[in-house]
Every structure is written in structure tokens, then in C-alpha cells.
Amino acid sequence: MKHTALFHPALTLFAATFFAATSLFAEVGFEKEIWPVLQKKCLDCHQAAREVNGKMQKPKGDLRLDTAAFITTGSKNGAIIKPKAADKSRLYEVVTLPKDDDDFMPPKGDALTAAEVKLLKQWIDEGANFGGWTGTGEPVKPGAAAAPAAVTAAISVEVKREHVDYYKALEAGVKPATEAAIKTAKDAGAQVSPLTATSPLVRVDFLTGVSACTDEKLAALLPLAPNIAQLDLGRTSVTDAGLATVAKLPLLVRLDLRNTKVTDKGLESLTALKKLQSLNLYGSEVTDAGLAVLSKMKSLQKIFVFQTKVTEAAAKASMAKAPGLEVVVK
Questions:
Q1: Across 143-155, average pLDDT
Q2: pTM
Q3: How does 127-159 read in b/e, with b if 16+ C-beta sit within 10 Å?
């Protein structure tokens, strides 16, 4: 008996074309496509605390990227991923900044390639799905292979961490920012993004137009004042005069003034910020006198003063007077 062919050549061509096209739109797999990139280019600084050359090395910025739970929770400054919104995700932002930006990641070693950045963006935009991957969950010794995910129990993404609790307490009673307030800030050149998907607290920066951000433009942030917890004014044209406006942000926790013309005089205004914990003054014109003013602020935990006129002696003296304060000179 003669058998008829199961597939017509035209149908075979159609099937091949269909499956090839389908593969182009396949969802990015975290374990096979994203995790190898993080493991190679980010994990050295962002994994569980471990011993390196006889010293304990903690994850920088309190950010761990070795488990799904910690990636979801984020760093000490809040969430780093907003599922389905890569353009509002801190993780995507820091790998796409200019390489001379202080926040560019990774700060050392090879940057992510264009293809890797594209994959990361696609993964987040698709919903930041980890699949069955939970992470290594164990400290990784130098030179040792990471433990397979199979040996790790499922970890809840609702990991409790000190900074998460702090922001949660801070947002109590805070109403979401109005659309009008957000529009006013954006019209002045600011970028506004929530700290987490459900938080009324926001992060504001002028990264897409730093030179256009002046003291006068900061007035546009005042309608958002009750909601701003993080403000990045790095490399802008802001001066001491602008800090009088910044001082009106009652819930400001993190302030970046790197590479601005801010001086000791302007720092006096910042003493009104009772929630401020982190202040970046890298490349500014502050001196030992300004540091003395700041060290009296009980809320401050970390001040970055490298490439300023602040001396190491003054930094040590400030830390001695305020045990909970860390002054980073170099």
C-alpha cells in the first residue's frame, strides 16, 4: 500500500516559520539567561556576607542578588525591580547610566553588554518571573561554585529587613501623591517613581536633564514634599540657595548632591531634615566645617565626602562623636 506524505512541503515551511517566529517572542528565562549575568558581573559585591582574606565582606548597599527573595525585596533604599516596568526599575536604571555616573553598575569589571541589558529589560517588562529559581541561599566562598537551587528550600519574597520596616513605618499615614503634583515635578524635568509598587513614598531625580535642574526648578517639587523619600540632585546646577527648598521635604531619607556647587553654608539648611540618613557630597565644595555641622544630625548614618576638602582627621573626629555615623572619605 502506498502511503501519502503526512506533510505538504508548503505546510512544513509554514510550521518552521511559525515556530521560529514564536521562539523570538519566548519569555526570558531567569535561571538560564539573567542569573548567569548577575552571577558573573554583580555577585562579587551583592551576595551573602562571607569571609574574604580573613575579613567579613557584607553585601554592598545591603543588596543581595543571590536569591529571588532578596532580589524582590531590594536594597536598603527600597525595591530595585518594578515588574512590567523596566524604565521604573532601579536595577535596569543603574546598568544604563553613563559610565562616569557614580551610580553606574557594575563600578568595576566588565559592564553589561547591549544584549544583556536588552534581556534584563525584557525580563522585567515581562513581569520579572523567576520561574522555579529561588537562589543559592548560602554564603559563597571565594572560588567555590554556587550551590544549586535544588538544595535550597523555597524562600518567601516577604523577607523582613530593617530598611523595609523603616520605610514601611515612614509611609504610615502618607497619602499617595496627586497626579497634579507629579505632573508639576515632571514638567520641571524631574523623574518621579514610587519606592515600591504600593508605597506612597517616591524617589525623584533629574538624570535625564541634570544641567537644566536649577535652584528655581526645585520649587516644582514642593507639591510632592510629603511624599519624597529619596532625592538625587547629582551633577545638577543646584547651589546653596536650592537647599532651602530641599529642607522642606520632611520625609527625605536619602539625598545625593554629588558634583554640585554646594558649600558649607548651604548645609546649615539640611539640619531641618530629621529623617535624613544618607547624604552624598562627593565632588562638592564642602570642608571640615560643613562636616562638623552635619555630624550633629542624629538621623544621619552615612556621609560620602570623597574628592572634597574634608580631611580624614575631621572624618574620624566626627565618627568618634557620633558612633552611629560613617563618613566615607575615600
A1: 33
A2: 0.57
A3: ebebeebbbbbbebeeeeeeeebeebeeeeeee
Give per-residue burial for 207-229: e unless 16+ CB within 10 Å, then b: beebeebbbebbebbebbbbbbb
Angle at 149 between CA 153 and CA 95, to 5 degrees: 115
Backbone angles phi, psi at 147, to 5 degrees: -70, 140
| Cα separation, 213 vs 199, whole angstroms | 26
> What sections of 171-287 are H helices per DSSP?
179-187, 240-246, 264-270
Instruction: Report the C-alpha gap between 218 and 269 in whole angstroms.
Output: 15
Q: Is the N-terminal amide bond of 106 cis, ω within 30° of 0?
A: yes
Mark 93-126 as b/e (b = at least 16 C-beta within 10 Å). bbbbeeeebbbebbeeeebbeeebbebbbebbbe
Give yes or no for a contact between 47 and 67, defined as CB atoms under 8 angstroms apart.
Answer: no
C-alpha distances out from residue 141 to 35, 109, 189, 193, 273, Å:
18, 20, 45, 37, 41
Rounded Cα distance, 281 and 259, in Å:
7
Residue keyed to cell 541561599: 137
What are the cell numbers at 5?
506524505
Instruction: Using only the alpha carbons of the chain, give its radius of gyration.
Output: 24
Q: Taking residues 172-183, what's their average pLDDT?
A: 95
Contact at 8 Å (CB) between 246 and 228?
no
| pLDDT on residue 155 | 30
What 3-state class would DSSP assign to 62? helix
Give 24-38 pLDDT, tens digit per residue: 446 888 888 899 999
- CA–CA gap between residue 63 and residue 77 (Å, rounded): 9
Neighbours of 48 (CB within 10 A): 18
Q: Give 78's contacts (C-beta < 8 A, 6+ positions apart).
A: 90, 163, 164, 167, 195, 196, 199, 203, 229, 230
pLDDT at 163: 66
- What are 168's three cell numbers? 514601611
**What does the alpha-carbon distance between residue 239 and residue 50 come to, in Å, rounded to a whole number?**
41
- Show Cβ contacts of residue 45 under 8 Å, excluding neighbours closer than 6 positions: 59, 60, 106
